[in-house]
């Protein structure tokens, strides 16, 4: 358990680099999403296809595990495909707040599947969401474009919850390497099709842009998403999805150090509120 929380901290730090790196990378948003998954798949290939134990596990993955892994990859592609375009349609604050409703949807999905999340999980989830609202604020714009962007961001939050739950189910019987390899490969294939269909440029970037894409792959994908897939087995989907809310203040702090964009004063109390909510969810899960 202590190791899982350590890896979770590393994972949240990794995904927190996502927004600052995307904001500073001169490439189409969907192309960025494609390359981070394609590069991650390529990086995992030697371990998944050459290393004997992992290669054997890939071959022995049952039909159900493979289908669930492919579904998780498709849902992850949907998450990227909905969230990134929303950033240019509505305010970043609204997009972030709506996209990070993931733990609420996770808890609802668990309830629909017959699980009965304790009241402490609901309380912790809602408290953590209050922390995100404190940090991001609320956009009251009623323009049709902003509302469409809000809807996309909300859909991205729902897709992220499905991704976490599918991953938790597969990881009950499949290793992190095998699952993430199949999942990321599927995500890359779906996003490639979307990029080709939408005309998003997949090349012609500067050397600095390619370096940022590599950094994004290592930080947000390999250390971020992959470690989240690693710890979800031990910590459970409720704790993992709630912890993802820490990405918002984490990204703000990284932007302050790296880009010189000082976080708002609300970032510090918001971080405390999110951590308190997460602590309630963790306490409830451990009691269960």
From TrEMBL:
Protein name as catalogued: DMT family transporter
Family the entry assigns: Belongs to the EamA transporter family.
Alphabetized Pfam families for the sequence: EamA
EamA domain span: 6-136, 148-282
Domain of life, per lineage: Bacteria
TM helices/strands, residue ranges: 65-84, 90-108, 120-140, 146-166, 178-202, 265-283
Alphabetized UniProt keyword annotations: Membrane, Transmembrane, Transmembrane helix
Native source organism of the sequence: Actinacidiphila oryziradicis
A GO CC annotation given for this chain: membrane
InterPro entries from the UniProt entry: EamA_dom, EmrE-like
């Amino acid at each position: 358990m202590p190791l899982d929380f350590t890896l979770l901290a590393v994972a949240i730090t990794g995904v927190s680099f996502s927004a600052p790196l995307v904001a500073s990378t001169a490439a189409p948003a969907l192309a960025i999403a494609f390359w981070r998954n394609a590069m991650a798949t390529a990086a995992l290939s030697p371990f998944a296809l050459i290393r004997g134990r992992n290669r054997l596990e890939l071959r022995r993955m049952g039909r159900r595990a493979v289908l669930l892994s492919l579904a998780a990859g498709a849902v992850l592609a949907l998450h990227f495909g909905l969230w990134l375009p929303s950033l240019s349609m509505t305010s970043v604050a609204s997009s972030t707040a709506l996209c990070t409703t993931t733990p609420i949807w996770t808890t609802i999905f668990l309830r629909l599947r017959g699980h009965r999340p304790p009241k402490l999980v609901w309380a912790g989830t809602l408290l953590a969401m209050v922390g995100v609202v404190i940090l991001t604020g609320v956009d009251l714009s009623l323009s049709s474009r902003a509302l469409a962007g809000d809807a996309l961001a909300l859909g991205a939050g729902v897709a992220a919850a499905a991704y976490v739950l599918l991953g938790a189910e597969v990881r009950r019987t499949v290793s992190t390497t095998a699952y993430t390899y199949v999942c990321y490969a599927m995500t890359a294939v779906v996003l490639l099709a979307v990029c080709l269909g939408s005309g998003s440029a997949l090349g012609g970037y500067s050397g600095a842009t390619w370096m940022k894409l590599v950094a994004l792959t290592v930080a947000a994908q390999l250390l971020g998403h992959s470690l989240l897939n690693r710890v979800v087995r031990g910590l459970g989907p409720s704790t993992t999805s709630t912890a993802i809310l820490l990405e918002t203040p984490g990204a703000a702090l990284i932007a302050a150090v790296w880009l010189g964009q000082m976080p708002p004063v609300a970032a510090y109390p918001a971080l405390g509120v999110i951590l308190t909510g997460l602590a309630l969810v963790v306490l409830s899960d451990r009691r269960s």
